[in-house]
Structure formats: structure tokens, C-alpha cells
Amino acid sequence: xxxxxxxxxxxxxxxxxxxxxxxxxxxxxxxxxxxxxxxxxxxxxxxxxxxxxxxxxxxxxxxxxxxxxxxxxxxxxxxxxxxxxxxxxxxxxxxxxxxxxxxxxxxxxxxxxxxxxxxxxxxxxxxxxxxxxxxxxxxxxxxxxxxxxxxxxxxxxxxxxxxxxxxxxxxxxxxxxxxxxxxxxxxxxxxxxxxxxxxxxxxxxxxxxxxxxxxxxxxxxxxxxxxxxxxxxxxxxxxxxxxxxxxxxxxxxxxxxxxxxxxxxxxxxxxxxxxxxxxxxxxxxxxxx
Length: 289
What we know:
2 domains, six-stranded antiparallel barrel, MreC_beta-barrel_core
């Protein structure tokens, strides 16, 4: 299509130049002929030359007009095509900038989350890795996560899982590249905890609900809404003092704990092996009875 337009353009351009040349030559011949007549009436010659020019000039314009219109139309179409190409380039650049901006915002969010997690100082003897959440399981509420561990050989079942605000669960299964996390609201979750101020001990039990329960408290225990709950250190898995949540509601014998972290909005977690001794080993030594 472009080649055909170019052929038409060259054809009419050549035609216009030919017509112009012919008109100029014709005008020159007429004027020269009158000069050869060698008449004394210069005024007549001048008038005749002017009349001839006035006659030939419109004819020339009429002959050249179609070619001029074609050339103008071709220039107009070429300018439209150029504008369309520029608009396409602008749209492509705009999409690229939108994608780049979204990636930058995502990186900023990830850096902020990771920085907040690193504010927690892991004991020197402990091992830890940072893992990205790739899936969650549950019906109305998430109670299990799948995280990408990147082929780490140090992740094992039972290890502690934290986020930037405290305990969120434990490793339930560990594979070559992924691990499954049982959150603290998981029905299989059991964590020994205590009230931070009163040091009253109990057990936090998941129910596959939005919040876990606080059970196995002393009969005379006084628990208040808003009390902070931390790990007790009993059991040989969690060290003492890790934040777990706060008492959210007390309904007769049913006490609900609101997790310190929003379990439905986790993006990165920290898996920690505190290398705590097994209480049974400390009691019985290497040979258990």
C-alpha cells in the first residue's frame, strides 16, 4: 500500500513539473514571436504579452491543480500516519511506566515489611530464614499458609514462625522448596502462654476460627479484656516472652485472644529454630525412661 502511494506521488509530481515547464516554454515562445515582429507599437506588444500571460497562467494552474491536490492529500495521510505512530509509542511508554511504578510500590512495601521483621533481634544461637507467603488455606478464615523457603535445609517441623509483631504459628510440614505453616488459630495449634502482667499461665488453642481460645487457666485466675498474652517458654519450642496477642473477649468460660498479627494479611514470615533443649532430655538425659 505504501509503495503504491509512493508511485502515485512520483507520477503526479513529475506531471506537475512537466506542465509547468510546458507553460513557461509556451509563454516564452509567444513573447519571443511578438518581439521578432519588430513593430514599433511597443504598447501593443506589451499588452499582447500580458494578455497571453493572463490566458496561459490560469490554464497552467488548472492543469497543475489535480497533482497539487493529490500531493496535499498524500502529505495529509502521511502526517496522520506519523501522529498514529507517535500515539502508539506514547501508549507503549505509558504502559511501561505504569508497570514500573507498580513494581516500585511492591518493592517498597516488601522492604518495609522486611525491615519491620528485622527489628526483632534473633538470639545469636538461633537460626532463621525469611519466607514468602504463596498460598493460604481455610474456609472463612485462613488457618494454614504455604510459604516459599527457597531450598533451605534448616526448616523442620515444629519450628517457630513469626511476623513483624509476634508469633503466628509453627511449621507443620517442610519440603524441599515449600513449607506448610499451621497458624495459631489452626485447630491443631497448642501453645503454652501466659498473661504478661500477672504471669498467669494457660494454653492457647486454635479452633479454625478467626481467634484462638485461652484455656486451662487456674480457677482463681483474673483475666481482663486487653491483657497482653505472651509465650510462657514451657514445652521446649517457644522461648519465653514472644508476643502472641491480647484478650479480645470474655464470655463465661470462653476467652478469645486476638492475634498480634492480622493472620489474613501476611506476606512474609520468619521461621526460627531457637535450638531450645527438649525438656525430656534435661530430665532424663540422653537415655529416656
